[in-house]
Amino acid sequence: MVQSVAVIGAGLAGLRCALLLKEAGIDVQVFEREHHVGGRMKTEKVDGFLLDYGFHVMQTAYPTSQRVFDFEKLDVQAFEPGAIIVQKKNEKAKFWRMADPFRRPIQGALSGLNRFASPIDLLRVARLRFAVRKGKTEQVFEGGNKDTLSYLKQQGFSQSMIERFFHPLFSGIFLEDDLRTNERMFRFVFRMMSKGDMVLPRDGIAGAPNQLAQRLGKDRIHLNSDVSIVDDTTLDIKGQTKSFDAIVRAFNANQVNEKRHVWTLHFNAEQSPLNSQHVLLNGDVKMNDGLIAHLAVPSDIQPEYAPAGRSLVTITVVGGRADSLGLKTAPEIEAAVRKEAKLWFPDSSLNWQLLAVQHIEHALPEVGSSRPLLATPHRQDFECGDHMLHGSVEGALLSAEAVANAVLVHLRD
């Protein structure tokens, strides 16, 4: 007799777990209360623009992603490695380009001459890159267990380098304003960034979970299904009970306690404000009470993100930074963002048309230094998701695989 498993939640972890169970011959059914799969990895079409829910990228160096996703079929395109940094100098914007000298040697050499960072800081970046790339990925989760800020100081980086480069980049990745994220997570992300590319799928970030959903089969996915768990093997589905051999919880029941929130603003622009395919970092965000963490133009990477002749400008504001400046509402955030962007792009930004202001209240699980961050997810019954390891696609997939294996062992007993 075929055994059956219910998976509650059609986010990335739920889809991956369900797919593994299906491949093992299990009759798996996925129940999702929203009208779409993917959880936070969703994309909406607005006036011909593809708007991801928050600024998302996929990372080609994630080992599990390399096994799980078909990047060729997703038709991914990459951002340029490195970044552009902007700061206010004498009431005008000054831009520096920081190219990756290992993958873009010529541009990297020029970056070393632009005086954004001291030669000592640049050497420390190279040393850090070498250190985190050594050995197996699991090794970055060994050693110290402090916060990222303490780790960067321990590595000898100047306060200026931390505030002008590391803070805007990693506060925008970790979605917190203090660099309190566990140093092991920093080392992991820095390793991945140095080995792979940040990419966007052709159809938006939703292309990733949609690819898993297609493999699983839409007939196994029940959207708009707000089910409740009666016990370890029973669900209440619209007032009717149904039994399964096991139930997987692919959601974070304590999500309300996760305080990392983010504001994402999408603008319709006549043309891209950037002249390269980099992400723009705000060097003033910590040093001079700035607001924007970073700005990207997804349509420069994937033209499908915008209609012909237009550009999509996406701006990220870390929630904790907005809170510290007393900004609580969408109109307040928009006004402050426009004021900051006007300094950088005084002519073009005036004509940007607002497409959406997204406030993602529980964007990432907390990954601080209060508990050791390990290379493998912790287990709690049959529960999976990035909150069981760390807030990343890799964390979600690894957790899903661990729970799928645990369910299969349980069913064999």
Structural overview:
The chain has two domains: 4-41 and 206-256 and 373-412, 3-Layer(bba) Sandwich (FAD/NAD(P)-binding domain), CATH 3.50.50; 74-200 and 259-364, Alpha-Beta Complex (Polyamine Oxidase, Chain A, domain 2). The chain has 413 residues and is α+β, with helices and mostly antiparallel strands. It is globular and about 75 Å long. It is 33% helix and 23% strand. The strands form five sheets. It has a seven-stranded mixed β-sheet, with helices on both faces. The longest helix has 20 residues, at 393-412. The chain contains 13 helices and 19 strands. Helix 1 runs parallel beside helix 9 (207-216) and helix 1 (12-23) packs parallel to helix 13 (393-412).
Using the coordinates shown, work out and report the CATH topology of the largest domain. Answer: Polyamine Oxidase, Chain A, domain 2
Q: What's the total number of strands?
A: 19
Strand order of the largest sheet: 8-7-16-17-18-15-19
Biggest sheet architecture: 7 strands, mixed
Task: Based on the coordinates given, report the CATH architecture of the largest domain.
Answer: Alpha-Beta Complex
Number of domains: 2
The whole-angstrom Rg is 22 Å
State which percent range the strand residues make up.
15-25%
Please give the share of residues in helix: 25-40%
The total of helices stands at: 13
Identify low-pLDDT runs: none
Head-to-tail CA distance between termini: 15 Å
- Average pLDDT taken over every residue: 93
**CATH level 1 name of the largest domain:** Alpha Beta
What is the structural class? alpha+beta
Taken from the alpha-carbon principal axes, the silhouette is: globular
